[in-house]
Specification:
single chain, mainly alpha, Glutaredoxin, four-stranded mixed sheet, 12 helices, 4 strands, globular, binds glutathione
């Protein structure tokens, strides 16, 4: 009997080792492995935010499947304690990759490129890669910073007025105090109380225009912003060029030929188009 069992097991083993079964077994192992490594990617973002667009474009360019968690900035959802647990500065975007959080749009972009398959979005040439990082830095510290000031009187101030009507001044200030980033909180309160003076706005417009000139020059020298490769730098600056245009500075962009050609090329990319096609879920009517 024992012999029979042995023979039976041996027979089974032989059977299992036929080519098809080896494929089947490896398939099962791979299947298990796939199950183990199935990850979820959730983006906390706001439809019209420049920094959220950077993250959406990058996810789409890499072909990453992601879930959307829209954060309504208009009702200060970004300052709710549950969201501040995710993003300590109470701003969008934030990325949750299977429970591990990344925030700061530039860090999110590099994380996505490092972590997922698909085309590399960073040049292999080290000089180009360094220039890509220079533009990522400028996207935050020059373009975003100044665009925020320009947008204040044109968009945010009006919104603050609306909020004041809805919430009342005291309630509104109480809400602003739940902004966890003390620097931003201080700036927001100052801007809400005093607005932004014309001289500051003119300075900011000039500062962005100067960067657009540098982009136009770079794009005259090579196909993409930081060299011959389409990269994260192209993605990082686009939302600010677009925002500059829609804030009434269309002519400043149109007068720069290389920049205009690049802009059209960027919007012809399906990943970019899809990132911009994400509209405000609150506007959805059925
Ligand atoms: N440095 C941050 C900036 C993020 C940021 O300022 N996000 C804006 C939208 S573009 C935001 O959430 N604003 C809401 C607020 O300040 O309350 C990044 O690049 O992710």
């Amino acid at each position: 009997m024992e012999f029979m069992n042995f023979k039976y097991s041996g027979f089974l083993l032989l059977e299992l080792l036929t080519q098809n079964n080896i494929l089947l077994i490896s398939g099962l192992v791979l299947g298990l492995k796939k199950e183990e490594t199935t990850m979820t990617v959730t983006l906390y973002h706001y439809w019209g935010s420049t920094c959220s667009r950077k993250a959406r474009m990058t996810l789409n360019e890499k072909g990453v499947e992601w879930e959307s968690r829209h954060i309504d900035l208009h009702v200060f959802e970004n300052w709710e304690p549950w969201y501040v647990d995710i993003h300590p500065n109470g701003v969008v975007p934030a990325l949750d990759h299977d429970g591990r959080i990344v925030y700061e749009s530039n860090a999110i972009m590099e994380y996505i490129d490092d972590t997922f398959g698909g085309p590399s979005l960073r040049p292999s040439d080290t000089w180009e890669r360094a220039h890509m990082r220079i533009w990522l830095d400028k996207s935050e510290h020059i373009l975003h910073k100044n665009m925020h000031l320009i947008s204040h009187n044109r968009a945010h101030a009006h919104r603050w007025g609306e909020y004041e009507k809805i919430y009342g001044r005291d309630k509104l200030l109480e809400r602003v105090h739940s902004q966890p980033d003390i620097q931003r909180r201080r700036d927001e309160i100052h801007h809400a109380e005093h607005g932004i003076d014309e001289e500051t706005i003119e300075f900011s417009i000039g500062r962005i225009d100067e960067q657009l000139n540098l982009m136009d020059r770079a794009l005259g020298e090579h196909q993409w912003l930081s060299g011959t490769t389409f990269s994260l730098s192209d993605i990082a600056v686009l939302p600010f060029v677009e925002r500059f245009k829609v804030n009434g500075m269309d002519d400043a962009v149109a007068s720069k030929k290389n920049l205009t050609n690049w802009y059209e090329k960027m919007f012809a990319r399906p990943a970019v188009e899809r990132a911009y096609a994400f509209t405000n879920p609150a506007d959805d009517t059925c």
